[in-house]
Amino acid sequence: MRIFDPHIHMTSRTTDDYERMAAAGVRAVVEPAFWLGQPRTSVDTFVDYFDSLIGWEPFRAGQFGVRHHATVALNPKEANDPRCRPVLDLLPRYLDKDGVVAVGEIGYDSMTPAEDAAFAGQLALAVAHDLPALVHTPHRDKARGVERTLAVVAESGIEPGRVLVDHLNEVTVKLVRDTGCWLGFSIYPETKMSPPRMVELLRTYGTERMLVNSAADWGRSDPLLTRATGEAMLLAGFTEDDVDQVLWRNPVEFYGQSGRLDLTDLEGAAATFAGNSILRGGE
Question: Does 264 reside within a domain?
Answer without folding.
Answer: no
